[in-house]
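Reminder: ligand-aware prediction takes two inputs, not one.
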Amino acid sequence: QTVINLGKLHSFRKRLNSSVSTCRCLLVRKYSDVPRKFISFEEVAAQRRAQARRSLVVQVNSESSFKELHGYCSEYSDIKGVHHYNNSSGEHFMLIEFASEENLKDVLKTCSAHQKDVDVMSLQSPFLWFRAVQGKREKYTTPATSLAITEGNAAVNEDKLFEGLTTCASVSDQIQMLYDQTVLNDVGVRLRYMVARQLEVIFASLYSNIAIRPFGSSVNGFGKMGCDLDLVLTNVLPEEMSDPKKRLVYHEKKCEGGRNPWQRHMELVAELLELRVPGAGRVTRILNARVPIVKYTHEFTDVECDLCYNNMSGVYMSELLWLFGSLDPRVRPLAFVVRRWAHTAGLTSPHPGRWITNFPLTLMVLFFLQQKTKEGVVLPPLKYLVQRAGKEDVRIAEDNLNCTFLRDMNKLPPDTYSQNTASLETLLVQFFEFYAQFDFQDKAISINEGMAIRKPNGLPLYIVNPLEQTLNVSRNVSYEECERIRMEVRNTAWQLETAMEEKTDDWGLLCLIERKTSRGLKKLLRVGNSQRLVSVKDLFKDDDSVPCENELKSKLE
Ligand code: CTP
Ligand code: MG
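Here is what comes back for the chain with cytidine-5'-triphosphate:
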């Protein structure tokens, strides 16, 4: 990521009397001769996992418990930072990051269990609570670190957001503001890694080498505050454990019966979530799909989780999106506004059905940014990243799926991306113009090629799955829904022309997006429930014809 010095940004702004996002672009350009340092997805994920391994979430009485909790824990360990948040039930939590994993282990040695009730069996998990003291309280000194008060997983304050959007100087600033204020924040990411860590700790004694990895919007850089958490469970033996020279070998329990063993393991996981995972509630099993999924709500963090098994291609897909998002600072803000526009227009819905979802919409944004306009391209096609991959980039996912592409963007010649320096406003207008003229009838969208290819079949919307090119990630989209996308895109392209010029009450983005109310729902009802709402059972009627695990997952979403 290019680091922008805020002091410089504001002095630029003053001198140029220009808007913040124009200044950002100028600064990026001015310093573009300084080589950019990209951090790889795997590095970020490793840092986040390490951070979670040295962190605890402690339920407290209120914010004022900070001094006491800090003082108590500091007796055993060094504290790096403390973040406070409330969940939707109004309960208070503090996420404590210790200086090292060893430090955290020292604190855990001092923990007790709540054994008042014989039915409650104790268990170690990184979610704890801070017991009030009986009698005289110990006096602690004021901590050197201050408490960071955060929003946790709370939804964005829409009134504040809209107030900000009205006062922006330009549409580009509005797009940037929408992104800055709604993107999943640091504590949101930390909490999601804590939720994954909790399962790892609890399941570790049952499955050796278990890893629970977040994927999807929580980690691909396109997640907004409050987004769901997609989790994948893997149980891969490291090389040293598969060494045939080692003579002592663990006995294993074979899974008997004809059913897919992992379907049965996922049944067990669901039971464990209900019985053994503090904070996990409303567990739903969707086990008859080819990829069994267990959904649950994590009540301490307010995160909705979807847990599946061995879906590493989902993780690699998240990595791919993350890499494209990191290549240019305009990619994510543009995707955010398009996703928000689609929500307002009622094109997407939190329920599964025959309509488009955020993931294929993001691919549509990436595909548009790969198009050559008179300003040049913003992003290279995926085939460039595949051609430049080295030995260290080889990744083979489930079903022998080849997910090899260049991981280190520092190796990519800078002229393969960001030749284009158009403003966000220009890109947004061009996005709608591009899709208003796109030949949905005969063409498929392929980010692998970076250009439209012939549709291999008659499905209404065809977006090539970048990692499994014989599949269509939008095969669930019905003809009516595809028509609605085309209509809304055309209307918006036309509407934007006037909204950009006139400074009326709903200028710029304000005419495209709305405060989150029930309007999306209203639109949905207007189109007709019987037409749009389908049951999960309907989605699996043609189970045999569904070729891809992820496609099933997207249906379930
Ligand atoms: N995915 C995939 N192939 C699909 C659908 C999904 O590989 N056909 C992967 C992608 O990595 C995607 C992730 O599964 O990001 C999660 O899918 P989903 O939850 O539908 O999308 P998100 O990107 O997480 O967006 P949202 O915020 O709407 O959950
Ligand atoms: Mg998701």
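DSSP finds 19 helices and 14 strands in the chain. The longest strand covers residues 79-86. We will return to this case in the review session.
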